[in-house]
């Protein structure tokens, strides 16, 4: 059977012998900065978003041709048995 060694005092108790920090608080970091205004998506982000949306539709509807390029969908081909 293993013996567990417990610490002499709990971890949450601060060390009274620790030296105080010499750093002063930074007032610039303490002040609340205004939230930045939202930016519009770039053309690249819009293009990728549209591409991902179309790809998701294709995954959801695998048997259905979705018009994305402006071309007519391919006619379904019938397999003739000879």
Largest sheet: none
H and E order? HH
Oligomer: single chain
3D shape: flat
User: What is the beta-strand fraction?
Assistant: under 5%
Q: How many angstroms does the end-to-end distance come to? A: 79 Å
Mean pLDDT, all residues: 73
- The unreliable regions are none
Biased composition (Polar residues): 66-82
Region (Disordered): 1-46, 60-82
Give an account of the 3D structure.
Residues 66-82 have a biased composition (Polar residues). Residues 1-46, 60-82 are annotated as: Disordered. With 82 residues, the chain is mainly alpha-helical. 27% of the residues lie in helices and 0% in strands. It is built from two helices and no strands. It has helices at residues 27-30, 43-60. The radius of gyration is 32 Å and the shape is flat. The protein starts with 26 loop residues before the first helix and ends in a 22-residue tail after the last helix.
Relevant terms:
mainly alpha, flat, 82 residues, 0% strand
Layout of secondary structure:
Elements: H1 27-30, H2 43-60
What's the short story on this structure?
The protein has 82 residues and is mostly helical.
